[in-house]
Amino acid sequence: MQGRVAIQNQQYWKSIGADYIYYDQGPLPGYYETQDDYDLRWPLWYVASKGMWDASLTSEQILKDACRKLYGSAADATWRELTTVLVADDVIPAVRAALRSKFARAKNTAQGRGAIRAQTIVELEKYIDRTYSV
After folding, report:
1. What is the C-alpha to C-alpha distance for residues 99 and 23, in angstroms, rounded to an integer?
2. Alpha carbon of 78 to those of 32, 64, 66, 68, 93: distances in Å?
């Protein structure tokens, strides 16, 4: 989730008494922003700046609010797009652990790869059921 680490850092800095936070884009050319970067980077900038005002908010709360304000009826679709990375962060360790437990002695063969591929789909479907079931 864009901004999650920024909020966690800000909450930590506040807990140890920091009064000011300064963000620097860095000296490397790779850090320079252009107008083409705004679509990708605005969530991080927005979450980080809003989090400086209220350190009790989570990145998810801030970004959901921004989606509602900016995208109206498309807010839910936008939220799903923005949280794709969050899903990957949550899913990958769980899938890796499940695969390790089931395929500890698997060989690197077409059959082994096929079994791992099938089990990966099963694990992802389990995640979707746990996360999105009503």
Report:
1. 40
2. 25, 9, 10, 9, 25
pLDDT at 62 over 60: yes
**Which structure tokens are listed for 48?**
């980080």
Number of C-beta neighbours around residue 129 at 10 A: 9
CB within 8 Å of 13: residues ≥ 6 apart = 21
- Count of CA atoms in the C-beta half-sphere (13 A) of 75: 11
Q: Against a cut of 0.85, is the pTM above it?
A: no
Give the distance, in angstroms, between the CA of residue 97 and the centroid of all CA atoms in the same chain. 20
- What's residue 91's pLDDT? 74
Question: How far is Cα 59 from Cα 46, in angstroms, rounded to an integer?
Answer: 10
d(CA 51, CA 54): 5
Residue 66: exposed, middle, or buried by beta-carbon count in 10 A (0-12, 13-18, 19+)? buried
pLDDT of residue 132: 65
pLDDT digits (tens, 9 = 90+) for 69-93: 989 999 888 888 877 766 666 677 7
